[in-house]
Design brief:
The structure holds 2 protein chains of 2 kinds. In chain A, 0% of the residues lie in helices and 53% in strands. Chain A has no helices and 12 strands. In chain A, a hairpin with a 5-residue loop joins β5 and β6. The radius of gyration of chain A is 13 Å and the shape is globular. By secondary structure, chain B is an all-beta fold. In chain B, strands 2, 4, 5, 6, 9, 10 and 11 form a 7-stranded mixed sheet that branches. Chain B has a 4-stranded antiparallel sheet with strand order 1-3-8-7, with no helix packed on it. The N and C termini of chain B lie far apart (36 Å). Classes of the chains: A mainly beta, B mainly beta. The interface between A and B is medium-sized, with 22 and 23 residues.
Chain lengths: 113, 110
């Protein structure tokens, strides 16, 4: 079985400052990991995914994440926050065969003007 | 491509009523899923399907039923609505390891 823990339910940063959203995972095999973003009243959109290739993954809108097996972490970062980044972010781990996803409880990112 | 579409966008039901949430994808994906999202929570898997005629339970299937007669459509049925089913429902389909989500249906049961 797999699980994922998002360490912060809410993160606030000022516009133009770095963003760090933390995610730890648990899996009995080599998982695929994802970050999804959900803007208010919208569906989920894939930001980036890790599937056992390069450990540093680049996604859309300047986001990236680093897979660290020794720390079982997959933290999401962005060098400079933009107002349009305000949203809910979900860290997700896949099951065997990538048939099922397990979602974290989400981190709400607020950008302060 | 329209991607994954869901209808209706909003619905209010009375306790005990029934309804079907529609989900259609035009990407010819075999895998399709239904999730519910409660406030402050992640998504919970209700049912999923690996192809036409094949469905299986997810984490929270009680109170729901599904069918998959075609590759495109994966409707979710609520037979006897209960207040605990008040939630936002998302349908998704998968290609390789990426899930594509519909815009959601916001359901309130009063």
């Amino acid at each position: 079985a797999q699980s994922v823990t998002q360490l912060d339910s809410h993160v606030s940063v000022s516009e133009g400052t770095p963003v760090l959203l933390r995610c730890n995972y648990s899996s009995s095999y080599s998982p695929s990991l994802f970050w999804y973003v959900q803007h208010p009243n919208k569906g989920l959109q894939l930001l980036l995914k890790y599937t056992s290739a390069a450990t540093l993954v680049k996604g859309i809108n300047g986001f990236e994440a680093e897979f660290k097996k020794s720390e079982t972490s997959f933290h999401l970062t962005k060098p400079s926050a933009h107002m349009s980044d305000a949203a809910e972010y979900f860290c997700v781990v896949s099951g065997i065969g990538n048939e099922k996803l397990t979602f974290g409880t989400g981190t709400r990112l607020t950008i302060i003007p | 491509n329209a991607g994954v579409t869901q209808t209706p966008k909003f619905r209010i039901l009375k306790i005990g009523q029934s309804m079907t949430l529609q989900c259609t994808q035009d990407m010819n994906h075999n895998y399709m899923y239904w999730y519910r999202q409660d406030p402050g929570m992640g998504l919970k898997l209700i049912y999923y399907s690996v192809g036409a005629g094949i469905t299986d339970k997810g984490e929270v299937p009680n109170g729901y039923n599904v069918s998959r007669s075609t590759t495109e459509d994966f409707p979710l049925r609520l037979e006897l609505a209960a207040p605990s089913q008040t939630s936002v429902y998302f349908c998704a389909s998968t290609y390789t390891d990426t899930q594509y989500f519909g815009p959601g249906t916001r359901l309130t049961v009063l």
